[in-house]
Amino acid sequence: MSSKPSLPKGTRDFGPEEMARRNYILDIIRGVFRKFGFMPLETPAMENLDVLTGKYGDEGDQLLYKILNSGDFLSRTTESDYRDGSRHFASLISEKGLKYDLTVPFARYVVMNQHKISMPFKRYQIQPVWRADRPQRGRYREFQQCDADVVGTDSLLCEAEVIWMIREVFNALGIIDYSIRINHRKILQAIAEAIGAPGKESELCVAIDKLDKIGSEKVIQELTERGFTAESTSRLKPLLNDSSANLDKMEQFIGSGNSGISDVREVFDLIRSSGMDHVDFDPLLARGLSYYTGCIFEVKVNNVSVGSVSGGGRYDDLTGVFGLPGLSGIGFSFGVDRLYDVMEELSLFPESANTFTTALIVAFDQNAWSYGLEFLRELRTAGIHAELYPEVAKAKKQFSYADKKNIPFVLVAGESEMEKDGFSLKNMKSGEQELLSKSAIIEHLISFNGAQ
Amino acid sequence: MSSKPSLPKGTRDFGPEEMARRNYILDIIRGVFRKFGFMPLETPAMENLDVLTGKYGDEGDQLLYKILNSGDFLSRTTESDYRDGSRHFASLISEKGLKYDLTVPFARYVVMNQHKISMPFKRYQIQPVWRADRPQRGRYREFQQCDADVVGTDSLLCEAEVIWMIREVFNALGIIDYSIRINHRKILQAIAEAIGAPGKESELCVAIDKLDKIGSEKVIQELTERGFTAESTSRLKPLLNDSSANLDKMEQFIGSGNSGISDVREVFDLIRSSGMDHVDFDPLLARGLSYYTGCIFEVKVNNVSVGSVSGGGRYDDLTGVFGLPGLSGIGFSFGVDRLYDVMEELSLFPESANTFTTALIVAFDQNAWSYGLEFLRELRTAGIHAELYPEVAKAKKQFSYADKKNIPFVLVAGESEMEKDGFSLKNMKSGEQELLSKSAIIEHLISFNGAQ
C-alpha cells in the first residue's frame, strides 16, 4: 500500500526553521512569566465533554472536536437514536473532546486541586488547542495558546504586573511601536447607564468592539437596529469620536464614584514610577469575552498588518461553574502565531534563531574522517554544537549540507592541516578560510556562540 | 449549572512540581540532541486516518483515537451503514485521528517535504501521543514521546552517536548504573538459520524478548508450541543460558561473513576510544518493532523497579509506505515517564528543579508594601525571579505562601530596615535572618542562583 500523504486542513507541521523561531518567541515569554513568579501547568489534550460543553456558548459547542468512543461504540445506541440526528447521536458515541482553550481546563484544574494549591496561584500554560473552525488565512484548527493567570487575589498589583510583563516581553522581542489599551467593564456598564440604556452593556460592547473596523456611523446604525434610542446614540456619539479620552473626562461623563475609574487610576498609580510608556486608557475598549468583570486590556502593534497580539482581563468567577464560586483572578495571553507574523514583518528574528549546529567537520578520505571524528568529540566536550558529515562524500555534497542547515563554520583537514594538528576553519558567510590549531578553533567557536 | 469535574481515565494534569521535574529531564535531553546537530520538529496532534491506519498492525488500529467529523456527520450515512456495525460506521463518520506515535508522522513529514529537506536529516520531536489502551500503572492514554532520528544515511557513525548521546544524557541526569545492550537484526536472522529454523526470526524474537521475564525453560516451551523442532530448541538452549556472549563466540555460532556481526564490530571500533562503559553486545536482544532491519539497542537502569528507559534501531524503509522507498535511517527514543520514575526512585532531582521564585517580599502595612514594590522592580531588573505578596496580609499567610511555593528567601521591611534602606533577608531553609542593604541582597540572590 502506498498513498500520497497529506495534512488535515487547518493544521500545520512546524519544521526546524519555524520551530526555532517559535521557540525564540516562547522562550522569551516563558522567561518573563517565570521571573514574575508564574509556574508551569499542562493539562491533557482530551477533556470529558461535560467539562467543555456549555462553556463557550452555542457556537463554541459546535466547534468542539469530539472523540469517538473506543471499541463497539454503537452498542449503546439504537436505530431510533440514529434517526434522531447527529446532535443527539453524538452525545451517545462520544464522551471526550479536544480542549478548546486553556481557561476552562485551568478552572477545572484549580477546582480539582483546590486543597493543595496555595493562593494566590500564578500559572502559565503554553499548549495547543483545537477548534473545528473554517480554516482561513491566520486561522487554524490546531493552534498554540499561551496564557498566564493569577487566581485567588483581587489585588490590582496583578493588573500592574500584566502591563510590566507585556512591556518586558515586547522589549526583549525588539518590538518598539505598540500600545496597551486599558478599560474596565464597570466603566462600560456606567456608559450604558449614562446614555440611558442601563443593563445593555453587552450589546453596547459588541457594537463598539467594531469601531476600529466599521467607524462610528455604522456603530450607531447597529445600536439603533439593536433597539438603542436616538437619544442614547446621540449621547454616545461624542465619545465615539473623541480620541483624547482620559479618566477625568470619563468621570465627568459617567459621574463620580465609579469603581472602574478608581481601579484604573490605582493601576496607573502603581506603574507610574516605571513610566507610562505604551499604556493608554481607552473607554471604548470592549473585548468580546463575557466573563470579564474588571479591568480589560488589549495590545496592538502599530503599523503592521496584524491585529491584536495580546489581551486579557479580570474575572470574578472563574470556577463557579465547577462548584467553587467567588474566585477572583486575572488572565492574559499572547497570540503566538500573530507575534510570529509581526516578527517576520518587522524582520526582528535574529540570525542565530535558526542556527542549530555551529561547526561541521567535513572529510574527503577515510584518514581525514577518523582525524575529524576524534576532534568532533573534543568540540562537543567543550559544549560546542558540532557534527561530522557521516560519510566520506564529495566536497559539494558536504558543503551544501552545511549551507542548507545554516551552519556558520566548516572544518576541513588535508595533509598539511593534519601535520600541524589543526583544521582549516571556513566562515561560510564571509568565505574566509584560515588554518588554525585545534585549541584556537575551540576558542573561536566558543566566542562566536557567546557573541550570538 | 455546577458539576464536579473530572479527568478522562488514563490522562494526567502536570502541576508545577511535575512540570519542573519533567522539564529538568527534557531540557537535558533536548540540549544533548541539539549538541549533536538534531533539529526540532512538531507535527499536528490530528492526522488523517489514512496516514495512521495500517501502520501499527491490527491491534494498533484498534487503539487509534478517532475524531468525529464536524457538523451533521450522519448525513453521509444510511440506516444500512448503521446496521453494518461500529467498524464500518466509524469509517464513514470519522476522517481524522490522534497520532499514535511520532515515527509515522515523521515519515509523512519527510515524504511531504522531501524536496526541501537536506539529507542526512536529523530531527528530534518531543510531543504527546494517544493510545486507547487499557489504563494501568505506568501506562497512560496520553503520554509524551521523545524521539530522535537520522534519515538519509546508512553510516554507522549514527549508531555510535546514539550511544554517545545516551551516555551524555544519563551522565547529566546523574544516573550511573545502567547498561546499553546492542544487537543486530541480521544476527537474529542468522541464529534462526543456524538452529535450522530459517525465516522464523520473528517468532524467535517474540519468544526470546520474554527471556528476562519468564526464563529459558518457558521460552523453549513457547518456541515448541510455535512449531520449532526439538533439534532447533536444543541448539538454541546454550545461547539462552550463556551470559558471557561476545561477538567472536557468536561468529563461531552463526558462521563468518555475517553483516550484523561486522556492523556491531564497526560501531564498537568507532566508540572504543571514548571507552566501552555501559555498552554490551547481547545476541538475544530482540525488541518487538518489526520495521528494524539493522542495529537495535535498549537501555536499562540497573537495580530499579522500572524496565527499559530508552531504545531504538536502524530501519531501511521508513517512508516506503508513503511512496518514497529505500530511505535508511536510525531512530531512538527516551521514555520520559519512566525516566521520571527512575529519577524519583534514586532521588536524583535537584532541589532547584522545583524552585520558581527566588525571593518573596512580604509587607505588613501599606507603607512597607510600597517600599517593597519599588525594590521588586529592582530585583527583576537584576534578573532575579521575585514576587511581592499582592496584599497586606497577616505574616502567617505570607510566609506560608513562600513555604508552599518552595521560595528560598523572604524579604521583610519594618521601620528599622527602611531607615537603613534595606531589608531583613530570611533564609527559609535555615531560618537565619539578617538585615542587609538592597545591593547586598541583590548580590546574595544572584550568587545563590548561580550556585544552584
UniProtKB/TrEMBL annotation, chains A, B:
InterPro entries linked to this entry: aa-tRNA-synth_II, aa-tRNA-synth_II/BPL/LPL, Anticodon-bd, Anticodon-bd_dom_sf, His-tRNA-ligase, HisRS-like_core, HisRS/HisZ, HisRS_anticodon
Subunit structure of this chain's protein: Homodimer.
Highest taxon of the lineage: Bacteria
Amino acids binding L-histidine: 101-103, 131, 145, 149, 287, 291-292
Name of the protein in question: Histidine--tRNA ligase
Catalytic activity: tRNA(His) + L-histidine + ATP = L-histidyl-tRNA(His) + AMP + diphosphate + H(+)
GO cellular component: cytoplasm
EC number of the protein: 6.1.1.21
Keywords: Aminoacyl-tRNA synthetase, ATP-binding, Cytoplasm, Ligase, Nucleotide-binding, Protein biosynthesis
Signal peptide: none
Record's subcellular location: Cytoplasm
Enzyme class: ligase
Pfam family name, one: HGTP_anticodon
Naturally occurring in which organism (per UniProt): Fulvivirga sedimenti
Presence of the UniProt keyword Hydrolase in the record: no
